[in-house]
Design goal:
Distance between the termini: 109 Å
Low-confidence stretches: none
Radius of gyration: 30 Å
Helix content: 40-55%
CATH class of the largest domain: Mainly Beta
CATH topology of the largest domain: OB fold (Dihydrolipoamide Acetyltransferase, E2P)
CATH architecture of the largest domain: Beta Barrel
Strand order of the largest sheet: 1-2-3-5-4
Shape: elongated
Largest sheet: 5 strands, mixed, barrel
Structural class: alpha+beta
């Protein structure tokens, strides 16, 4: 004769919680951790309450109490997960979209040409290394660069920061040239 396992509800919750936490450890991504912690926590509290006050955890009242514990502990686990963002560091380590790479700076890790190269971007996402191309010329390893076109995948178009001249710098240079031209020869 086969006797089925006679497990209490709190013990089942602990086992299910452990299973979900282990599954999260095997395949991370924050899909199972909140539910796993909620089930594990409610099961442990249920086992402790059952040891101290056995009638409290038995029957319909005990089942409702454990369900309420799963909800409360789950809400607390979700709050902690969102507040501390264990997987992403408040979103700083993630790239929101491709366009957010435009204007990011970094350094060349492998010589960049029009067909090959690699850069490491400052705040470039979970993996800050990107294949890189330049529109013209070559950029040596160690040179500071800026992303001028994020592309659509993991290949970005970069330009040396020394070669980039923005509108303000151009206007300042024009102002200096005008000042030099308007000065008399004797004052130079």
């Amino acid at each position: 004769m086969v006797v089925p396992l006679d497990l209490s509800l709190p013990l089942l919750l602990v086992l299910a919680g452990i299973g979900l936490v282990v599954a999260e450890a095997v395949a991370p991504g924050a899909h199972l951790i909140v539910l796993g912690v909620a089930l594990l926590g409610a099961g442990i509290v249920g086992l402790l309450l059952g040891a101290l006050f056995p009638p409290l955890v038995s029957g319909l009242v005990g089942t409702l109490l454990l369900a309420l514990l799963v909800l409360v502990i789950g809400a607390a686990a979700l709050y902690v997960y969102r507040e501390y963002d264990f997987y992403g560091g408040k979103g700083q380590a993630r790239t929101a979209d491709v366009d957010s790479l435009r204007g990011r700076t970094g350094r060349v890790t492998e010589h960049v040409t029009e067909t090959e190269g690699e850069v490491k971007l400052d705040e470039g996402g979970f993996n800050p290394y990107y294949a890189a191309r330049t529109t013209d010329g070559e950029i040596a390893e160690g040179t500071e660069v800026i992303v001028i076109d994020p592309g659509g995948g993991n290949v970005v178009t970069v330009e040396s920061l020394g070669a980039v001249e923005d509108d303000i710098e151009r206007e300042l240079a024009k102002g200096r040239e005008r000042a030099m031209e308007s000065e008399p020869e004797d004052d130079r």
